[in-house]
Structure formats: structure tokens, C-alpha cells
TrEMBL record:
It comes from Astyanax mexicanus. Belongs to the fucolectin family. SMART domains: FTP (SM00607). GO terms for biological process: regulation of cellular defense response; regulation of complement activation, lectin pathway. This is Fucolectin tachylectin-4 pentraxin-1 domain-containing protein. Homotrimer. The keyword Disulfide bond applies.
Length: 138
């Protein structure tokens, strides 16, 4: 990461495949992963959370195309860290098929351009929880 890189996710718009049900739904909003708060304790409402489903995903729209240099994910810390095993990070300019053809794995170095950053968790009965997603670039 160079001195010119900044966390682009802070100004983006986040969405996810679905939302954990009450009484926890207010704690698991997609925006929580780009709020700048690295707190990994889910009950403090700074993490995302989906229900169990096939191929859950979370996405940030950076609103513009940027050159992405690195992405860092803060995982849930109070339990369930293994849920993120196998997660893929996709960067690109398309929403098609959670599209974005450049796939990397957590805490990866990138050298790609894109508007959308998607974290997808392949498999059935998976729950996706992210406590912070930082997308650096220019």
C-alpha cells in the first residue's frame, strides 16, 4: 500500500444477499463492514450477518472505477471465525453472476481495476459475517 492509497470502501454503498433474522437483524447490516469500526464483537453491531444459505455474498459499490491495490477483511472475533473459510474476493465492473472475474482470497494484494468488490462464500448452508472490509487503491 502506498501513501497515495486510501480506503475507498468508506465512501461506498454496501449490500448483501440477505440479512440475519430478528432479533439480530439490526446488528448485521451490510453497511457495518464499511463503517470504519474494526470491532469484531458481533453484539456491538459493527459486523454484517446473513442467514444460512447457498453462496452468500456481500458487496460494496465504490461508485467509480478504481485501481485496487489491496483488500483487508476483519473477521468476526467473538466466535465462528471458521465461517469465513473458503471466502473469495471478486473485483470488477459487472454485477452479472457476482461477476467480476478477478478472484483472490482474504487479505490479498491486488493489481486490478474495478467498481465492485464482492465477497462470496461458496457452498450450501453458509453464513457470511464480515466485521470490516477495507479496499485500498486510487
Amino acid at each position: 500500500m502506498s501513501a497515495c492509497d486510501k480506503n475507498l470502501a468508506l465512501l461506498g454503498k454496501a449490500t448483501q444477499s440477505n440479512l440475519v433474522e430478528n432479533p439480530w437483524s439490526a446488528y448485521g447490516l451490510p453497511y457495518n463492514a464499511i463503517d470504519g469500526n474494526h470491532n469484531s464483537y458481533f453484539p456491538d453491531a459493527s459486523c454484517t450477518h446473513t442467514t444460512a444459505q447457498s453462496n452468500p455474498w456481500w458487496r460494496v459499490d465504490l461508485l467509480y472505477k478504481y485501481k485496487i491495490t489491496s483488500i483487508t477483511i476483519t473477521n468476526r472475533g467473538d466466535c465462528c471465525a471458521e465461517r469465513l473459510n473458503g471466502a473469495e474476493i471478486r473485483v470488477g465492473n459487472s454485477l452479472y453472476n457476482n461477476g467480476n472475474s478477478n478472484t483472490r482470497y482474504c487479505n490479498s494484494r491486488f493489481n486490478v481495476s474495478g467498481r465492485y468488490v464482492t465477497v462470496i462464500l461458496p457452498g450450501q448452508g453458509r453464513i457470511l459475517t464480515l466485521c470490516e472490509v477495507e479496499v485500498y487503491g486510487f
